[in-house]
Amino acid sequence: MEKRINVGIIGATGHTGEILIELLLDHPNVRITRLFNSGRGGVISRPISEFFPKLKNRLDVACAKPDWTQIKKECDLLFLALPHTVSMKFVPKLIAMNKRVIDLSADYRITNSSVYEKFYKVSHEDKANLKKAVYGLPELYRAGIKSAALLANPGCYPTSVILALAPLLAVNAIETDSIVVDAKSGVSGAGKKLEKEFLFSEIEGDFRAYKVNTHQHSPEINQVLSRLCGKKLEIVFVPHLLPIERGILSTVYIKKAPGAKFRPGGVHDLFRKFYKSEPFVRVRPEGSFPRIKDTVKTNFCDIGVKDFGRTVIVISAIDNLLKGASGQAVQNMNIMYGLPETTGLL
Amino acid sequence: MEKRINVGIIGATGHTGEILIELLLDHPNVRITRLFNSGRGGVISRPISEFFPKLKNRLDVACAKPDWTQIKKECDLLFLALPHTVSMKFVPKLIAMNKRVIDLSADYRITNSSVYEKFYKVSHEDKANLKKAVYGLPELYRAGIKSAALLANPGCYPTSVILALAPLLAVNAIETDSIVVDAKSGVSGAGKKLEKEFLFSEIEGDFRAYKVNTHQHSPEINQVLSRLCGKKLEIVFVPHLLPIERGILSTVYIKKAPGAKFRPGGVHDLFRKFYKSEPFVRVRPEGSFPRIKDTVKTNFCDIGVKDFGRTVIVISAIDNLLKGASGQAVQNMNIMYGLPETTGLL
Amino acid sequence: MEKRINVGIIGATGHTGEILIELLLDHPNVRITRLFNSGRGGVISRPISEFFPKLKNRLDVACAKPDWTQIKKECDLLFLALPHTVSMKFVPKLIAMNKRVIDLSADYRITNSSVYEKFYKVSHEDKANLKKAVYGLPELYRAGIKSAALLANPGCYPTSVILALAPLLAVNAIETDSIVVDAKSGVSGAGKKLEKEFLFSEIEGDFRAYKVNTHQHSPEINQVLSRLCGKKLEIVFVPHLLPIERGILSTVYIKKAPGAKFRPGGVHDLFRKFYKSEPFVRVRPEGSFPRIKDTVKTNFCDIGVKDFGRTVIVISAIDNLLKGASGQAVQNMNIMYGLPETTGLL
Amino acid sequence: MEKRINVGIIGATGHTGEILIELLLDHPNVRITRLFNSGRGGVISRPISEFFPKLKNRLDVACAKPDWTQIKKECDLLFLALPHTVSMKFVPKLIAMNKRVIDLSADYRITNSSVYEKFYKVSHEDKANLKKAVYGLPELYRAGIKSAALLANPGCYPTSVILALAPLLAVNAIETDSIVVDAKSGVSGAGKKLEKEFLFSEIEGDFRAYKVNTHQHSPEINQVLSRLCGKKLEIVFVPHLLPIERGILSTVYIKKAPGAKFRPGGVHDLFRKFYKSEPFVRVRPEGSFPRIKDTVKTNFCDIGVKDFGRTVIVISAIDNLLKGASGQAVQNMNIMYGLPETTGLL
Fold this sequence. Notes:
- The structure is a homotetramer.
- By secondary structure, chain A is α/β, with parallel strands linked by helices.
- Chain A has helices at 15-25, 48-51, 68-74, 91-96, 113-120, 127-132, 138-146, 156-170, 200-203, 217-229, 266-274, 326-336; strands at 5-10, 30-36, 45-47, 62-64, 77-80, 100-103, 134-135, 150-152, 180-185, 208-209, 236-241, 248-255, 281-283, 301-308, 311-318.
- Chain A has twelve helices and 15 strands.
């Protein structure tokens, strides 16, 4: 008999919530039983199609204030599509109820809570569960994901950057103090904030850097990469804002470690082999690089790599709302429930 | 000796203010003596280049709260680039001081104050000057503009629509109860409002109608057209929002009056002759229609017209910020001060 | 046992082909057995993922020259996603083989072949099948579609326009000689032509009308509407090009017939009832109009309607690539094969 | 009496030609006497307004095949807005006629002709004049520009990159083998090529790298920077294509030389002083970075710089068509003719 997962979403009315719902509607093993808002803002209950007209005639579930009784009875798994610093208000009780949780916020990604507090300007209220959370990047941590109770779904930039660097870092072939990442993201990465800088008249025809080398995703990237290569590492990281809706392209500049020797084609081979069995990483033919459109509306991370002698340049592209958020969350769910990893995602 | 106009702008920090400043900086007969904000909001004084970094090293004037002493001593002409309903708080005193005024708001465009009040939801506080205001569409009212003390600069949609209809209406060749205007505007028409509907993620990739047949520019258009043809007329008018920054294209559907007879090419000839001496109206060759880009960053209104027998289709294009606002205001200033009409505009 | 349709696509490498493939991959009752190009251009065979990198790891079928033996043995149903005037070179033989055919070109839409010849500049080579073709607009012709051997899938503009007019026309409540349609389409409607006018630098920031009242979709619209109201009718139709990729919004201006009487809300009711059971037409609440984004990436046609007394304004929105092309083709397939009409489309 | 320069443009119908014409029309000391095409393509003579409708009623000069008699009699200065490899067919004769020449192509920028030949795939036909050409970056070479007969106007990327690096390089404070430049350009940089990759449907919503570390502007940048710091240097350079029309933003990653010591704010001071007297370089306040829109439609290069300890990040923005091409060409003309450098450019 077919597996059936009863899913609830807390924070269903944001960008990630919207995409999650669309993915889960197409997923053969999922029933969306309940949609909740964050409980702030005073809205009691409204049909989800009032928030997303596209869902009219497709999903007739109300989005209401979180209700612990309903959660207890009707949900096996909860997705938290909440703003940073809000998720940790829900997690302790959910874990105590023995629910499995996939958190799309940053609250359980950074193991060192003082680093979290520095970048997110708030103290961490749930250090107990923080220790147990599993970082949900399947390409590196699939084994742990399988049995995770609390999964911290990676950030969008970290997904694109870590996958670009992992193959060379894992074999210690890189000068770890010279990594430069120049990343570019579409506007949806910032959610739906009503701020002047996100007006059409500000974005259209423009391009700019922001949070130059001070973005809150830097410590997340540094933490994972350091663990991977076994020494403390800090990348230089500059994110930029593209005048498009979706997608991230990261251009990564690497210097080979002095002792690292590669035959022609060797670096490319390394990438090809590293990701050979990965269903959602596609390494481009040698000399070819991905563009954002190759991955938009897909859960793929496409990677191009070229060896220029001392320097190696890697470019990765993802859809920030899919592989960079909701798609990866579903991929993690598939792993957690023993389903084929691509279910509902191809 | 060369004429020199000392100009002040009240409301200098909005979209129209910004464009006005750029035009006036290039105008050989203008000195910008003072820039003022609307007096609301509590900002006392800041360099204008803090609002518009582009003006750095180009205009070193502060934008401050309106100061009647400075206005009295240092300004011959005031441009009011203020929101609707704010201009009429300044005009009475300016007129009393014998200043000439070009008002870019809607406050002095609609002669019937009860119509104004219905569409702008506020009572008119300056009916005395309303009666004396001259409607600043040079192609129709040049004579009156020359000696105007108070000039009401036309709205953007009205400019594009009236110029498309005037030649046929002026000879009474139109069924006046069948005029349909389908207009499309770039986002800058709405100024810089911080509203969800003007976010990049809402506008990009989208297109929609708004204020369907209830837009506040309808009565302005109806008033001018009715005056032109000598009978009360009401158009059907649907504005739409384009995912671009600048420009308006109006597609106008006309039925010929039963008695109207035109030889082949006759309708086109009528347009060509009507605008023959106009420096800022360009009639396209027969069978050809303008696109928005033909007029962006210019003060031209481009018009294409084609006779389909019973139906005539006219398409006009303007830059809403120039011929539809600040450019036309400068054109009117040139007329008011006896300068060549194209000064600073070509 | 579940129904299984073996599908071949001829013309798989164009825009409509691409979207069709994506839809059919998600369709539980379809197996894509063969992909063919148009047979022109000399390409023998290449994996479809070389044309559409997104399909990599999702569909491992080559796109090759049409092969009649394969068609005969391996395809129950053929989709023709070919340019106009090319489809009619394939249809006679396919029909002779007893294959069912859904043609997405214009070749079998216009029953009067001399009208076809005037607008498509080529003589019709298959008048025999032209007579038998069923026009595939489910909302009007569902009964005939069920048993169609050859289905002419409607054009994108016609779909959006006919659905906006059908309810009022069907009850003869319209002045049939006063219908004005102002339609706006995204760029994908033009396919992937390599012409200067479709360069980014031409389209971005621009908007223009084209084929003013001479578009080849006019006769298709006129034919269906005339049939519906029982008298010959000609609309005024001006299409425009939007600087976006996908979507059509049609603004339709209607004059009520002199005798037509509606109580307040009556026109809206008429629409609501007319489309009550339609799975892919959504009538907006009274006074509300759709925007393009409501329908992009869906098979819905959203309709808003408002009664202004003598004038009624209807606005419809569709995704030109889905309800305006490939989505409607799949909807038609579902009807032809007795499947639930929304299968693979929600 | 006012200085008057009689100017001819060869290659007037391209993007740079268009912008040049617009600038020169506003320039008080210039008369455009003749416009020429490249002489290829067979067009004899057509009014320039047929190419650029915006120029209608503004410039009534025909664009014709180059005519040496007219050039000799009517032009003091020639701008060559020609494709690379075409300019060098005109220069020898122009120089022989004692005309002054501003060449906007790459033909006279790279002093080592074998490097030119490697990147532009054609042998250099005019090595004699190549030796005498002056590289027209006013901020570095103003003295030489004054008396130049043949001026090589810099490329767009080189302008943005060299200005970002010059202050630190000039004092040898940089590790010269670790410079990484991640540059992003609008589409107009590629001119108006009719290629699939420049279609709206390809560019819109997309972003990609191209010519990864192999772009033809690399040797131009390397040459100027090497000269500046006195040793051979090679940057890592990856250009990207933005879905916008105009503008370049270059993000430059620098490692300080081991011996370089700066007090807090010292690096920023260095930039501020280096460009203190430059009319077209604006250094942002410390900690602030420019966006593309700050410079679009201006001749400014805006620069932001921040010291992160071992790493310094510099971001520069220009309008590729102005400071990156035609604007800089006019700035150079002003210098060559002893005019105030900002004439016609503010």
